[in-house]
Amino acid sequence: MPGMRFLHTADWQLGMTRHFLDADAQARFTGARLAAVRSIGQLAAAEGCAIVVVCGDVFETNHVERPVVVRALDAMAAQPDVTFHLLPGNHDPLDPASVYRSPTFIDHQPANVVVLDSHEPVPVGDGEQIVAAPWLTKRPIHDLVGAAISDLPSDGTVRVVVGHGIVDALSPDPLDPSLIHRSVLEAAIEDGRVAYVALGDRHSTTDVGATGRIWYSGAPEPTDYVEDDPGNVLVVTIDASGVDVTPRRVGTWRFVRHDAELTGAEDVEALAAWLAALEDKERSIVKLALVGTLSLRDKAALDAVLAHHDDLLAALETWERRSDLVVLPDDDDVASLEVAGYAAEAAADLRAVANGDGDDALVARDALALLYRLVGSSR
Q: What's the pTM?
């Protein structure tokens, strides 16, 4: 039986932007995605993989800026002994506006970059083929992968199917016409028409079903908090003994969610310690769910902690939907203001309202917090 050894990756989404990243962090985020392409080429060469299959969404859209395309092609050209097979996906379909048909792509496409633009099997070795299911539109009306393999013979050829989309067993929408049918893939594996199915679209590394031959590689760099296991590529070996799939870590960024219950100074200090212990802060995007009740004094301390780490992290967000942090001034807060006259009377009135309920209480708490910060900054 002929054998193959190749690298399976997907969802590079080059040119992706994130609204919560400032200009400096966005530049690092963009640079990391391009650096991942170089790392993938280097890893393929080191692992003896002459082929890299990129299973869709190479680019974030068909309208990415010219430098993104040129730099990506240059990164792939840096490994001339490795051939990159690029599959158009739902983000970059092979429609009339396709990035793959743009003058920028065509003029700078190196010899080792192949666009998988049809179902026609692509020979990649003696008795070895790639069979692709490219997206020609953003809204296909049938199972593209199933259609690509429907007429394949069982003739001993080692075939790697390259597809993009959601397998029906993983989809929350059973009526989606573009779903990939797992039973069709497993039948093709069972009768020998297909040796391995390389998929993209799911950003977490996932083994689908029980065959060990249907995989999502996941995105090489994470893109969101909901991803379970991003940052990997897969080294796949197919030989007479079967199929071996080995994840390799290439990602350098991470998205982190953290719940914190805050009831006093000790909890604020614990959150500060957790944030301080994070590694690679410049490549970490953190979302906090904050619940509890704090005094003005402790809320001011919390604000200082968050401001400090906002400067260090790529991004620091508050998870509004899961946050419920109440600021209630106590006697020490009001006494520490050290204001007199009308200001003291106003502070006392605000505290009385703040200890109530409703919108007025929220406004009063915000006003007291502002007064506390203003007085504190003037000392």
A: 0.88
